[in-house]
Automatic annotation (TrEMBL):
InterPro entries: TAP42/TAP46-like_sf, TAP46-like. It comes from the Eukaryota. GO terms for cellular component: cytosol. GO terms for molecular function: protein phosphatase 2A binding. One of its GO terms (biological process) is regulation of signal transduction. This is Immunoglobulin (CD79A) binding protein 1.
């Protein structure tokens, strides 16, 4: 009996760990991982952070599949009809997109930002259907022309929209800080809890709109970089140059040059066909000629 009890006590933790996480646990843990990664001082490309990002993405993806299977949201219902406990699951696509943007694989950067944009657009479409907050839904393709320097009206409108979103986000964050403590400590009633999740959803609307603008600009740059790499001319490979040979003056060349200058050349052995004179020796004869020239003139 004692032996069987010991074996059960060992196996029990393994069975607990093997149990799949509940939907609320998947969302809460994935959300917590994002907040930890977003506020960490460690390099984003470090192995420990990337492992945490991957684990958070997997949890949120599993939670999204469970939400789809449970069919928690419908286009035929209003925002007020969603249960308070289910409101937080509206954040799943936004958190997935934000965690996806934390991945740092350079050769897959274009794929990463496009995947994150798809998550953000999914979140914004659902918020637009439920009329969570007034905003203009971005273009689904992302292929839009940015206003040039001459289109001052469009530039001013974009700037004003960014300022307004920033102001709204700061107001929502200030309200969130007031109700967060009550929700985290479990002292909030249903009304406060509902307000807390709605404030989070509206804040993430502003965040996703900003991130989509940044992604569209980055995608345009990444595509141009890929085109530049494909069309870049290949530099031809030059064969290695042979080493330079030392400069040598032969006996005959020295005699001809010096005979014109009335200079006697040092006699070389006639048995040799070539009498090599290096540059230092040739400089001696040039100096001698200069001295004789100065004496005559």
């Amino acid at each position: 009996m004692a032996e069987s009890e010991n074996s059960n006590s060992v196996r029990q933790p393994l069975n607990v760990d093997a149990e799949p996480l509940k939907l609320s646990e998947l969302l809460d843990r994935g959300w917590k991982i994002f907040e930890e990664v977003d506020s960490t001082n460690e390099p984003l490309g470090s192995n420990s952070i990337q492992v945490k990002v991957k684990r958070g993405v997997q949890m949120l993806e599993e939670a999204s599949r469970m939400v789809a299977q449970l069919d928690l949201f419908s286009r035929n219902e209003e925002l007020e009809e969603i249960a308070t406990a289910d409101l937080k699951y509206l954040l799943l696509p936004a958190l997935l997109g934000a965690l996806t943007m934390k991945q740092t694989t350079r050769d897959k950067r274009l794929e990463i930002v496009q995947t994150a944009r798809a998550y953000f657009m999914d979140f914004l479409r659902r918020c637009d259907e439920y009329k969570v907050s007034p905003f203009k839904l971005p273009d689904s393709t992302g292929e839009k022309s940015f206003p040039g320097p001459t289109n001052l009206v469009a530039m001013a409108a974009q700037r004003q929209a960014k300022i307004e979103r920033y102001r709204q986000k700061k107001e929502l964050e200030a309200k969130l800080s007031d109700v967060r403590r009550a929700v985290e400590t479990g002292q909030a009633d249903d009304e406060v809890t509902r307000d807390f999740y709605l404030l989070n959803v509206r804040r993430w609307v502003a965040v996703c709109l900003e991130d989509i603008e940044s992604i569209d600009q980055e995608v345009e740059i990444l595509k141009k970089m890929d085109m530049f790499k494909e069309n870049a001319p290949k530099q031809p490979t030059h064969p290695p140059r042979p080493p330079m040979k030392p400069f040598i003056l032969t006996k005959d060349a020295v005699q001809v040059s010096c005979s014109r200058l009335h200079v006697t050349v040092i006699h070389c052995d006639t048995s040799q066909s070539i009498c090599p004179l290096f540059i230092s020796e040739w400089s001696f004869f040039i100096g001698l000629w200069n001295v004789m020239f100065m004496q005559f003139y």
